[in-house]
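Objective 1b of the project was to move from sequence-level analysis to a structural picture of ligand recognition. The entry below was assembled by the postdoctoral researcher (A.K.) and checked by the PI before modelling. It contains the amino acid sequence of the target and the SMILES of the bound compound, NAP.
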Amino acid sequence: MGLFNGQVAWVTGAGRGIGRAAALALADQGAAVAVVSRTQNEIDRVAAEIISRGGRSIATILDVSNWAMVEWAATQIEQALGPIDILINNAGVLDPLGKLWETDPEEFGRSIDINLSGAYYCMRAVLPGMVQRGRGVIVNISSGAATSTSPGWSAYAASKAGLDHLTRCLAVDLKGTPIRTYALHPGLIETKMQAALRSATDDQLPPAWRQFFLDQQQAGKIFSTDVPARAIAWLASPRCDLDNGATIDLRMQPEYIEKIDRALSA
Ligand SMILES: NC(=O)c1ccc[n+]([C@@H]2O[C@H](COP(=O)([O-])OP(=O)(O)OC[C@H]3O[C@@H](n4cnc5c(N)ncnc54)[C@H](OP(=O)(O)O)[C@@H]3O)[C@@H](O)[C@H]2O)c1
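Corresponding predicted holo structure:
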């Protein structure tokens, strides 16, 4: 018996990286999973992988920064799989990198549109149904960048700080309902986004800061995508015992990794 049998999950940015691993983890626990991103062949592959393991899945092309598309996608998903019980707001972009006064204003706006407004749009699309049905969980994939300052990624850090606070604000709005929401800082995870940090140019990230990511890789301190995927499954499950609106950081609070493994294998 899986933790999510009979439930429907929607994972954004699920074509690769953390989103892909989360989609597979939720499906392995019985959820029917809608995988979305802007790259058709990547989401098709993930949906096919879920189906080949005996699960249910659909792949829907979506740019989360477009409210009309988000509304359309939510309707398509619910028609195909049923009411959405679990939303994983994982889609995210790193750019623009560089000193704040050298970044492209349009790219700054794009970062906020995807990392912050995109998450809001997906919440906005699913919450009326969740509140009406009296069930649902929303997990927002944020970042340690939300609470630390590092040179060269102001747009990313500001968008993720906004996402953490949006999560707390939503929890206050949800008071009196059984709907839960959390933010997750996954730590340093081996994905295309992490590789982009290691190969950033000098005008994007100071060499010492780029070296930090290379050193972390050489020291084996970059987690595989399975680590945040298990955390996402735990947060979405009834076994999660956090206060509503909480944020956890797997790098700064590694004790959660063991706790999550224990809770999931119980
Ligand atoms: N890797 C890390 O070390 C790390 C650390 C902290 C936080 N995070 C967060 O974890 C999340 C996943 O990152 P990742 O490392 O797995 O990165 P990734 O491999 O680059 O994956 C990002 C995913 O988001 C999708 N995406 C980007 N823009 C989108 C849009 N407008 N609409 C829909 N989908 C979109 C991408 O697909 P398309 O480009 O095809 O749309 C891709 O599927 C992000 O929110 C990131 O900020 C990652």
